[in-house]
Amino acid sequence: MSSDDTVRAREDDTVRAEEIAATFDAAAADFDRVTPDVWGPAGQCLVFQAGLRSGDTVLDVGSGTGASALPAAVAVGPTGQVHAIDLSDEMLERGRVKASERALLNIEFVTADATTWEAPSSVPDAGYDAVLSSYSVFFLPEMDESFARLLRLVRPGGTVGVTAWRETALREYATTFLDALGPHLPQPLPDLTAQMEPAQRLDTPDKLRGWLTAAGTEAVEVRELSNLIPATEEFCWSFVLGSGLRATLAGLAPDVVEQVRTDFMTLIIDRGLHTIDASTLVGTAKVVGFGGPDKLRQ
Ligand SMILES: C[S@@+](CC[C@H](N)C(=O)[O-])C[C@H]1O[C@@H](n2cnc3c(N)ncnc32)[C@H](O)[C@@H]1O
Fold it and tell me: Which of 27, 50, 73, 116 is the most exposed place for a label (fewest CB within 10 A)?
């Protein structure tokens, strides 16, 4: 890559990071409304499967409102510490409020880009005991390189854990929403295939296992978390507004948005969609031989 290309790629990444921050800032309240059904159970499972111990130091990447970071803080106890990083201030602020309500003093929510995060001096030189990331790695630019960098922040023998959507998840739900939305749009939506590609690379147990192994980890464990959520109107609409689907409504007048909502619920009933499939894969592995954050800085 020429130096011009490198500069251009960096500028693209900056623009993308700003867009992600703006999207999740706008979506934060709705996003958090579905935490008890969607993000919370997966975050809790990820923490259990990661086998955190009292006193561990944990980095939670793309922590959002704390679905995995908060249970991680509980698991590592007062002698441990959790750094929860995210691009979106609004998401982080919600996490801070929850941590304060739960009297958790061992967690810090920090506005930071995972692609440039360096472990602060409170982290042992060897690196974090664990890096966790729930539904976030597929947002990172150049997912493989960004993930490899994160693994270098983990001490040798430490743990990495991610969650990702299972291939069937959200398919019928998203299709039904887009079918309801389509007739109300002034022009067709742009093709989203490229945007979905990173998540699709992790969406079966074999793919996720293969990806974690290729990243240089060992003792990979992938579990399937079945999560079929009753398709209530409140859930269905909150999930639209609290997810990437929200962007499809940008620029539509409020009465049109209301009509989309009505049509969406009608289609859900017509198609007999009683549950929303939010099934998830939880992958954990041991990190071997990177030699900690100091190596990365060389
Ligand atoms: C789907 S949300 C998941 C949030 C949380 N982990 C959960 O499970 O509820 C994805 C999060 O990743 C964050 N994110 C995306 N790219 C990021 C980056 N480069 N650095 C830090 N956070 C990022 C977004 O801002 C968003 O809050």
Answer: 116
